[in-house]
Structures are given as structure tokens and as C-alpha cells.
Amino acid sequence: MADTLTSPLSRRRLFIAGALGLASVASLSTIAPASAADKDWTEEFLTRSETREGFVVDDMDDWQIENAKFLIAAVKGHDLGKDAATIVLITAIVEAWLYNYEPAVDADSGGLFQQRPSMGWGTYDEVRHKKRAVDAFLGLGDHSSAPGLLQAVPDYDDWEPGAAAQAVQASAHPERYAEQVAAAQLIWERYADDVEPYTD
């Protein structure tokens, strides 16, 4: 992570530079994700638009890592643990590869969970707000009328994680969630101990 933040032309910055122009590279440090040390989940972080590029645990970029940490922090903030976090993570991996995905690729879907405003998950902005999106997915967001995890699967810890995710998402490709369980559990093992609960 340090290399990405200090090198002016890292792989990530070169990718963005190609899209924005080299003149924009100098300003990228101002939109870098919060460091693991300070846990400063800023409003800019919670609402920033990101690009879906790919997902492999060992190749996660800074945004994917910070989003994974934030999801763990938000789950912990609701006094939920590894089982709930695994379901949250596999869903965000499958739906948006751990990016707060902005462009609508499936009707009006958006955000980490590709939630649809037309299906009761909140407004256009709310489904793209990371805290509101994870709260809605868990069934703990007052802004959402869609049944979240705690409504759809109150005994989720007795379920196979992929099946629990599908109970919330009603995806046309339910098998994809189970494929990411190992990745989600590895992410939890790597980062959970260093992430404090987030309740704001």
C-alpha cells in the first residue's frame, strides 16, 4: 500500500492516468483511501465512485483492500462476526469485485452490492454509499425496504454462506457466491484483527 501512495507512477496511478491524463496524477494522493492506522472512513471514501477491474485476493489493489476492511468494520459495528462478514464479502466480491461500482450494468443496480433503487434498496445515492449499502444488505438500514440478511435468513450462521447471500440477492447466478467463500474467509483472516468496529 505504501508503494502505491508514494510512487507517482504506480501501476494503479498509470491506469488512472491513462483515463484522466497525466496532469491529474499529482492530485491522486488527495483521494487515496484511508490508511489502516487511522481508520478515517471519510465521506469521500464512503461515496467515491470506483471502477470494476477484477478480483484476486493476492492482487487486491488499495481500493479493494480498504473496501474489504470497511465491510468488516461495518459488520463488527453491528456486533456481528465472521459468518455475517463472510456473506457480506462474498456478495460484494461477486457483485462488484469489491469496488463501489458506479455505472449501471444491470438495470438501475449500483454500489458494492449492485443494489437496485427500484427494488427498495434505497435511492441512487444510498445504494452507492458504502455504509448505507452494507446496512441495507444486513437488514439494518432504515432507508431500505428490501429484506436484508437478518430478515431473509435470521439463522444465517446455520446456512451455507453462498445460499444465504442468494436468499438476499436473488441472483440469476446463485452458484457464484459459493465460489468466493474461501476468498472471503481469507480476507477476514488477514484483516479482521486489525479493524475496529465502525458505527458512524
From TrEMBL:
For this UniProt entry, which residues form the secretion signal? Answer: 1-36
Q: Which UniProt keywords apply?
A: Signal
Q: Looking at the record's lineage, which domain of life comes first?
A: Bacteria
InterPro entries, from UniProt?
TAT_signal (IPR006311)
Q: What is this protein called?
A: Uncharacterized protein
Organism (species)? Brachybacterium alimentarium
Q: What is the lineage of its organism?
A: Bacteria, Bacillati, Actinomycetota, Actinomycetes, Micrococcales
